[in-house]
Amino acid sequence: MQFAVPGSRFNRELRTENLMPNIYETRRLLDEYLLFHFGTPAEVMPWENGPREALGFPVRTVMELIDLPKTPCEAVALDLGCAVGRSSFELANFGVKVLGIDFSQSFVDAAAQLAAAGEMAYECVDEGSARTALVARVPANLRRDRVSFEQGDAMNLRADLGEFDIVHAANLLCRLTDPLKLIERLPSLVRPGGQLLLTTPCTWLEEFTPRGNWPQGSTREWLTSLLEPHFHLAKVCDMPFLIREHARKFQWSVALGMRWVRRM
Fold this sequence. Notes:
alpha/beta
């Protein structure tokens, strides 16, 4: 379930492409994503009685959905809507080469800086104008040398992108103006036997996606009808996640998590 008021900051939660691109080029949104991807549990949730099971979402979308035994040693992975890159680095830790793509140039630049330097300074909001200086750090055990990033539109990916053993797309679909454009491209992006790791909070809002492009009913049923001809649904799970707006205000949501395997 998800609690949101149309027009609130929370409704910009984890993705929009083409409809309102400028908000993702602001320093405030960049800092929020750096905290969401790289903040420690104490930095994100300073309250002991908070929903800590919802922390670490960019890590869990990889760790809880991937099927490790079927991942080739020299696999290549695509992280669509990579934001500032934490899931890309997690994928690379399995020995795969990873390409992260995001519509926001500021996010891509930050992810590239993290890949090169391993860290980046940012701030989180405490309340009002009060800020705390923080540093986003890629964990030392992750393979920064196996990750690259580029700016791109998930609805109009370049034709020469190729095929991948793993495609990861977390909380992307319901922030696209026309999600069907990406869904129709997915079979050509995932190699036979490869994995599609997909999550969505199913938050369909007209400020991001015209109503005519929404699922007509259940998002899960809609995705199943579109993907099943090309993929086998191997796993479904509920994945809570937490967004910090400031030290006393948080938004808790539950994404639908799915692992699809490309049919041979």
